[in-house]
Design goal:
By secondary structure, the chain is mainly alpha-helical. It is found in: Membrane.
């Protein structure tokens, strides 16, 4: 963390906030209006994606305050935990929601009859709830690292940004074989008994320094973050959009406008994953393989903040409601007329 300049952190946070907040507020208005009149699965998913981005933007001022204070957390500890939880949870929620949007678009192009049968809003609501639960369950690790006695950094003035330096020092030892290490819910971690203080460190078969035997699930959990919450969604998106593009350009019945929208969605989704998601998640894998915490890890985390700026590109190509609302937002007269018409309805 010492290598990361606070000026860079603060600049990235401010830029992401100023660019992301207006676009996502506009998207919130557009999708809320559209769902109120005609709820479609794609709009429900995009509304959840917008809410995820806005939650991220809500905690960003706290991260700005931390950066402006020289990366010293002077606010109450519970705000640190809440901020970290929302910060990471919304990042992974966005990747899963983007994947869901991609699958819906693929089904609409490849299987139009099936798509018509799946137009019930309930399906999109259940999918969104599942995504939020999965992300929250994985990112509950932020609360554990902050409050669990064996994992927290006592007397630390820095808010949790993953793991402490000592926790991030990976060795080449195998994980605890007595635990299902890949898919143990992180909320169960405080229930696991740790070794006693008299147990020599060299005999505890640690992977992360100062982690007790039960805490070894943190290491494969990081790998699970990379594979389950990043790589697999990315591969699904790439497959779906390649198939969509092939089908659109091999069948003349599709309009040029639809082809442009799908291409825009594909490029926007790919940009979000390659710029915002993949670099940070690759540090999970590379850090595990190299046996150390990567120095440039935090810079890749900063790239994740641009997610709130790139998502509106996907909104533009995915929803007619957002495209209609965009010129209204730049025309005060039309926006006033629109609001007056809504009040008369």
């Amino acid at each position: 963390m010492e290598e990361v300049q606070t000026e860079i952190i603060l600049s990235v946070y401010i830029l992401s906030f100023l660019m992301g907040l207006p676009a996502n507020l506009l998207a919130l208005y557009a999708f809320s209006t559209k769902i109120h009149s005609r709820p479609l699965p794609i709009d429900i998913l995009l509304l959840n994606l917008t809410v995820s981005d806005l939650l991220f933007l809500c905690v960003l001022p706290l991260k700005m305050y931390e950066a402006a204070s020289g990366m010293t957390w002077s606010l109450p500890d519970f705000l640190c935990s809440i901020t970290s939880f929302i910060f990471f949870c919304t990042i992974y929620t966005s990747s899963l929601l983007l994947t869901a949007v991609t699958v819906v678009r693929y089904v609409a192009v490849a299987f139009p009859v099936t798509y018509q049968r799946l137009q019930r809003p309930l399906y999109a609501i259940l999918c969104s709830v599942l995504i939020w639960v999965v992300s929250a369950a994985h990112c509950s690790i932020t609360f554990i690292a902050q409050h669990h006695p064996s994992l927290s950094r006592h007397n630390s003035t820095r808010c949790y940004e993953g793991f402490s330096d000592k926790q991030l020092q990976v060795s080449r030892l195998r994980p605890c074989s007595s635990l299902p290490v890949l898919f143990v819910p992180s909320l169960l971690l405080p229930l696991c008994p740790c070794t006693t203080a008299n147990t020599p460190l060299l005999t505890q078969r640690l992977i992360y320094l100062h982690f007790c035997t039960c805490s070894l699930i943190l290491v494969p959990l990081r790998l699970e973050f990379f594979f389950v919450l990043c790589l697999i969604p990315l591969l699904i998106c790439v497959f779906c959009y390649l198939r969509c593009i092939y089908l659109l350009y091999s069948r003349p019945r599709f309009s040029p406008q639809l082809k442009q929208r799908v291409m825009g969605m594909a490029l926007g989704t790919l940009a979000v994953f390659l710029v915002c998601m993949l670099p940070y998640n690759l540090t999970h894998l590379l850090g595990y393989v190299k046996g150390q915490s990567l120095v440039w890890r935090y810079y890749t985390l900063l790239l994740s903040t641009f997610n709130t700026c790139l998502d509106p590109i996907i909104f533009y190509f995915s929803s007619s409601a957002f495209r209609i609302s965009l010129p209204l937002a730049t025309d005060p007269v039309q926006l006033t007329i629109c609001w007056q018409q809504r009040e008369l309805q």
